[in-house]
Each structure stands twice: as structure tokens, then as C-alpha cells.
């Protein structure tokens, strides 16, 4: 379990609480941890760990972590100079471990207002999930909020859903990878649900699921190969899966309809739940799907959306509401502001993530996310949605992505523009090469860069 830089910043300003419950329970207030162990992060293990990453210099005064007992384990501010830096929290107790539900409650002095929404949202009536959670329940607005999330609310607004769930990837088989040269890429972009939604030879319970897409031996009514076998028969060497991270399916939709495409990410480390054939099996089913592609010599790329999130704010009845899932309690650290103090909108969604400057939490978040998908799932490459936003204002352009050795084998592909029309000054540090952008006008075309560089930009679809 991991909390981010913003959590440390908030802890230093106020109080954060850890809520836990056994996996079979709907009530977060069950199975309280019996004790809490505080160590430097280097001394803790991934499983059962709440990691407070490098603290924000703006907020890093000091923090003291303590166990309050009962159902909530508290982390409160104190004048303790040891609190700066990287910390780990290990929660021990009966039933605590893989499968445990957990959430955060954050309190303090928020700075966001109706007239100046670009500030912190620190209200203990909000219950937040973990941005580093490996598994979650459905994270949808109606599952998360029982009433409009006004930042000045004095009553509980949490609807009970969207909980983070501890998952131990080390208990799963190690993934494989496919090494495909850029010049040998024959890519096929697909949507996990749509590709098998109408395959008559597939049991209804598997249609539109990870396992349905992994199912071999399927035929059309005319006897032709279908499903994953059809892709292998076509000679496809890599598939690009449209977004499969957990996302808010109710964002930008009319009542009663679902946001189908998945470009409103809520959790960058957890797979989307609705593509699982069995509830709670999305992690292992996705791993089985990726292995099924690898068994057929097909690499797997993910369409990743790091330029914005599903969070957002609005004014309703003269009050500021903030749909906050896990990041917007520290808006200035995560999101990009305009000159007049509102949210930047180069993504078209009104909540651009900020990667400006040098080392910062948002860059760590993206690199850690890419590392997880590459090392725990076996993902072979990534297509970055509106990729220019990742380099905008960054002191090292996009090298903070491409230079990370943890996913050095992965292909990096880019949609090299943003919705403000900026394009040619996109990413200017090797191995990214903006000159490949000329191929982006082609329909579902592929540009492989110069020579045989595995890290060359590859634009895989037209705008």
C-alpha cells in the first residue's frame, strides 16, 4: 500500500486517518489493526505498506506518526524533524494483508474556495482511496459520493464504494515479455470489451472480458478463426489495448449511460474491474490475457492516460464541489494552474496534471505506474495519450520517462500533441524524436523512428 508525496504534505498540515476492513466486509469500520509500525521506507515490504514518499518542500515541516487504536489509525502532525523524507507504515493485525480494504481520511486547513478553486481540499468528511492501490472496487461517482462533494460539507458524503484493496503481486507467477523490433511492428488497436462483445462462439459470461479476449479456438459461424486466433492469423505482432486502468465510468456521460472508452483514469496502478468475468479477479485475468498474447508471439501495449484524471471541481448552488478520489486534496502539487489561478485545460477535460520543473511527485507517480505494468503484468510498451503534456514545462522534457531503467525494454509510443494545438516542439530529448510526428496524419499508421532503436516514437493512430 502506498501513499504519495501529497499525503506527507497533508499529514504535515493536519491529520490523515487509515481505515481498514476485511475483504469480505462492506463496512470499512471492521477489523481494526492491532498495532502500527513506523520505519524508513527502505526497511519495509511492499505488502501491507503505506508508503509516504518524498515530502513536498512547501509543506515539509515535520510529522509524527502514531497509532490511535480503534477502527482508524491516525497519522498526526508534531514537531518531529525525523518526519521529512521517505517513510513506511506497516499495519499489523488479524486479517490485515492481501484482500484488506482500506481508505484514507484527510483533515486540515484547506485553501480551495469558490472563487479560487486551485487549492487544497482538506475535509475529514471526504473519504479517499489510495492513488497507489493495486486493486480497487469500482471507482464511479455514484459509488463514491452519496451527495454533492461540497468542500465545506459538515456531514459524511462517502457512499461506501471505490475502496482500495491490498494485493500481493509477488504471489503471482512472474510475467514474460515479447521483444519485437520497431521495424517488425504490425499493430492492432482494440477495446477489450468491444472486440469479443458479439462473438457467438464465446459463452455470454466471457464476452467483453479479459478472459474472453484470451480464449482460443473460437470460430465465426462461417468457420473462420475468431478472437485472439484471428489476430495471430492476421500476422499482428503487437496489440494496443485501449485504456484498461481503473476509471470513472460516469464521467462526461448522461444519466444512465456509461463512459465507454476509459480515458478518465482514477487509479493508475489498478486494472479496470468491469472487464473481469468474475468479480474481484481483474488482476489475475488481465495477467492471463497478456500471457495468452505472448504465447502467440504478440506483444501487448497499453494506451495510458497520464495527462489528466477523473477528478474535477465545479460551483453548484453558490458552493464549490470537488470530485476527489485520491489526489485533489493537494491540487497545487498535482494539477497545473493557469495564470489567473484556475485549472489548465490542454487536455480538454479541465484538469491537466502538472509535470513542470524538475523532480516532483507527479513524475514519480507516472514512472512507478509504468514500472508496475511492465514488471508485474508483462506489458511490453505504452502509448501515451496527449503526450506533449508530459513534457510541457519540464526541465528535462520527457527524459524523465524514457531514461527510467526499470522499463527500459518497453516500447514508448506517443500521441505528440495536446488540445491547445501544440505539436512540433513536443519532446526534444533522445530517444524521443519529434520528427516522427509527420506520420501522425496517416490512418492507423506506424512510425518506427531511426535505425533499430527500441525506444523510438511510434504513432499508432490518427487524431
Write the layout of secondary structure elements.
Layout: E1 2-3, H1 5-13, E2 15-21, E3 35-40, E4 49-52, E5 64-65, E6 72-76, E7 87-92, E8 101-107, E9 127-128, E10 135-136, H2 141-144, E11 164-165, E12 187-190, H3 192-196, H4 210-214, H5 228-234, E13 238-241, E14 245-247, E15 265-271, H6 282-295, E16 299-304, E17 312-316, E18 319-323, H7 331-334, H8 361-377, E19 381-384, H9 388-391, H10 399-402, E20 411-414
Parallel strand pairs: 1-4, 12-13, 13-16, 16-19, 19-20
Antiparallel strand pairs: 2-6, 2-8, 3-7, 4-7, 5-6, 8-9, 8-11, 10-11, 14-15, 17-18
Overview of this protein structure:
This protein is an alpha/beta fold. It has 2 domains: 168 residues, no CATH class; 213 residues, TIM Barrel. The chain contains 10 helices and 20 strands. Strands 2, 5, 6, 8, 9, 10 and 11 form a 7-stranded antiparallel β-sheet that branches. A 5-stranded parallel β-sheet has the order 12-13-16-19-20. A hairpin with a 2-residue loop joins β17 and β18.
List keywords for this structure.
2 domains, TIM Barrel, 463 residues, alpha/beta, seven-stranded antiparallel β-sheet, disordered C terminus
- The backbone outline, from C-alpha atoms, is globular
Helix count from the secondary structure assignment: 10
Tell me which oligomeric state these chains represent. single chain
Provide mean pLDDT, rounded. 76
Strand tally is 20
Portion of residues within helices: 10-25%
Profile the largest sheet: 7 strands, antiparallel
CATH topology of the largest domain: TIM Barrel
Distance between the termini: 37 Å
**Could you say how many structural domains there are in total?**
2
CATH-assigned homologous superfamily of the largest domain: Glycosidases
Question: Regarding CATH, which class of the largest domain?
Answer: Alpha Beta
Strand content is 15-25%
Q: Which spans have pLDDT < 50 for at least 5 consecutive residues?
A: 1-18, 20-71, 76-86, 433-463
Topology as a string of helices (H) and strands (E): EHEEEEEEEEEHEEHHHEEEHEEEHHEHHE
Amino acid at each position: 500500500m502506498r501513499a504519495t508525496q501529497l499525503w506527507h504534505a497533508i499529514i504535515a498540515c493536519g491529520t490523515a486517518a487509515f481505515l481498514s476492513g476485511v475483504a469480505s466486509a462492506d463496512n470499512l469500520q471492521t477489523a481494526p489493526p492491532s498495532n502500527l509500525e513506523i520505519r524508513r521506507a527502505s526497511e519495509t515490504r511492499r505488502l501491507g505498506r503505506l508508503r509516504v514518499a518524498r515530502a513536498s518542500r512547501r509543506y515539509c515541516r515535520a510529522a509524527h506518526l502514531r497509532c490511535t487504536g480503534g477502527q482508524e489509525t491516525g497519522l498526526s502532525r508534531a514537531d518531529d524533524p525525523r518526519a521529512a523524507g521517505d517513510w513506511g507504515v506497516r499495519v499489523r493485525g488479524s486479517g490485515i494483508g492481501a484482500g484488506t480494504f482500506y481508505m484514507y481520511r484527510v483533515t486540515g486547513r484547506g485553501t480551495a474556495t469558490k472563487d479560487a478553486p486551485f487549492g487544497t481540499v482538506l475535509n475529514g468528511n471526504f473519504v479517499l482511496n489510495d492513488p497507489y492501490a493495486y486493486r480497487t472496487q469500482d471507482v464511479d461517482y455514484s459509488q463514491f459520493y452519496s451527495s454533492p462533494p461540497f468542500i465545506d460539507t459538515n456531514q459524511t458524503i462517502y457512499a461506501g464504494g471505490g475502496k482500495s484493496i491490498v494485493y500481493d503481486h509477488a504471489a503471482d507467477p512472474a510475467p514474460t515479455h515479447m521483444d519485437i523490433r520497431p521495424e517488425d511492428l504490425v499493430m492492432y488497436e482494440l477495446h477489450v470489451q468491444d472486440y469479443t462483445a458479439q462473438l457467438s462462439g464465446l459463452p455470454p459470461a466471457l464476452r467483453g472480458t479479459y478472459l474472453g479476449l484470451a480464449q482460443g479456438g473460437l470460430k465465426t459461424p462461417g468457420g473462420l478463426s475468431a478472437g485472439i486466433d484471428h489476430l495471430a492469423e492476421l500476422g499482428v505482432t503487437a496489440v494496443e489495448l485501449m485504456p484498461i486502468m481503473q476509471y470513472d465510468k460516469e464521467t462526461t456521460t448522461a444519466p444512465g449511460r456509461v463512459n465507454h472508452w476509459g480515458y478518465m483514469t482514477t487509479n493508475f496502478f489498478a486494472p479496470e474491474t468491469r472487464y473481469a468475468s468474475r468479480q474481484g479477479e481483474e488482476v489475475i485475468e488481465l495477467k492471463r490475457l497478456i500471457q495468452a498474447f505472448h504465447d502467440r508471439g504478440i506483444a501487448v501495449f497499453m494506451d495510458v492516460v497520464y495527462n489528466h484524471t477523473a477528478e474535477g471541481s465545479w460551483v453548484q448552488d453558490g458552493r464549490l464541489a470537488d470530485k476527489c478520489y485520491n489526489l485533489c486534496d493537494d491540487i497545487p502539487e498535482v494539477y497545473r494552474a493557469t495564470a489567473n489561478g484556475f485549472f489548465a485545460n490542454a487536455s480538454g477535460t479541465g484538469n491537466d496534471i502538472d509535470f513542470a520543473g524538475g523532480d516532483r511527485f507527479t513524475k514519480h507517480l507516472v514512472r512507478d505506474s509504468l514500472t508496475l505494468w511492465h514488471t508485474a503484468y508483462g506489458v511490453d510498451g505504452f502509448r501515451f495519450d496527449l503526450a506533449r503534456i508530459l513534457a510541457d514545462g519540464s526541465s528535462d522534457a520527457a527524459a524523465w520517462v524514457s531514461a527510467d531503467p526499470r522499463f527500459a525494454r518497453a516500447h514508448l509510443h506517443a500521441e505528440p500533441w495536446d488540445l491547445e494545438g501544440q505539436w512540433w516542439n513536443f519532446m526534444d530529448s533522445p530517444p524521443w524524436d519529434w520528427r516522427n510526428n509527420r506520420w501522425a496524419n496517416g490512418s492507423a499508421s506506424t512510425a518506427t523512428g531511426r535505425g533499430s532503436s527500441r525506444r523510438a516514437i511510434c504513432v499508432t493512430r490518427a487524431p
